[in-house]
Amino acid sequence: MGREIKRLDRDWLIRIIKYFEVMGFDRLPLDVPTSTCLITNSGNGSCLMKEKELLKLRKEIGDCRLCRLSEKRTNIVFGEGNPEAELMFIGEGPGADEDLQGRPFVGKAGQLLTRLITKMGFKREDVYIANIVKCRPPNNRRPREDEINACMPFLKKQIEIINPRVIMTLGDVATKTLLGEIGSISKVRGKTYRYNTIKVVPTFHPSYLLRNPNAKWLTWNDAQIALRLLGR
Ligand code: SF4
After folding, report:
1. 133 lines ligand 1 (CB under 6 A)
2. Which residues, including other chains, have CB under 8 Å from residue 210's CB and lie 6 or more apart?
3. Which of 31, 103, 204, 228 has its CA 20 to 30 A from that of 221?
4. pTM check: above 0.90
């Protein structure tokens, strides 16, 4: 038992050192930042490189003022999860809880999404979660076209870096933004589409499911489509 723990400690230390080496550090910093690659046990070079590119993108976004959503936001909600996720969820935009915490899907709708992720056999940190716009639209209104156009290059870059095998779009806005005007979410869900080479499975937004719990089984059907595409 004691020997096993020592081995785990050694493996953990090697992964931490490798992580900082890839990140360009020549010595270990005192404050060790959180690395999803380390948490998810994918401390491999590819994951670390992707994490580094995501950090660079976050730095480029900085204190973005490209659209009016910057005026009332508390935090930019960049997105979070495994940089090597095979499954990515894309919602519409941050709500009040997300705006306060700077993290996607952490309110009631987020708890429902987390339950779906768990039911699918993943941990939340195994997948990647982001939104079409990174700042909260006032009063939870839908993001406007010019706001979406201003913010989309950031999400496109995130998708390019992560390169998931499957994206589940959550609700009308995310689906239309990624796939174009293909119809309302209730008509297009249940099928598979493509965004570049990535398979896309549209489903209802968790906020809709909170208001319409009877539609949860349809979302579970969509989740099973995504699982089949992932070979699970
Ligand atoms: S929503 Fe996007 S484009 Fe608009 S201010 Fe926020 S980060 Fe910038």
Report:
1. yes
2. 108, 109, 112
3. 103
4. no
- Sheet of 80-81, strands arranged across: 80-81, 128-131, 87-91, 166-170, 198-203, 193-195
Ligand 1 binding pocket includes 168 (Cβ within 6 Å)? no
CB neighbourhood size of 58 (10 A)? 15
The token duo for 184 is 């309302």
**Per-residue tens of pLDDT for the chain, all 232 residues:** 455 555 656 666 676 677 667 666 666 655 555 678 877 766 688 999 999 999 999 999 999 999 999 999 999 999 999 999 999 999 999 999 999 999 999 999 999 999 999 999 999 999 999 999 999 999 999 999 999 999 999 999 999 999 999 999 999 999 999 999 999 999 999 999 999 999 999 999 999 999 999 999 999 999 999 999 999 9
Cβ of residue 77 lying under 6 Å from some atom of ligand 1: no
CA-154 nearest atom, ligand 1:
2
Any atom of ligand 1 within 6 Å of the Cβ of 130: no
Contact 94, 135 (CB under 8 A): yes
Q: What angle do CA 148, 222, 190 make, to 5 degrees?
A: 80
- Among protein residues, the one whose CA lies closest to atom 3 of ligand 1: 151
CA atoms within 13 A on the CB side of 21: 9
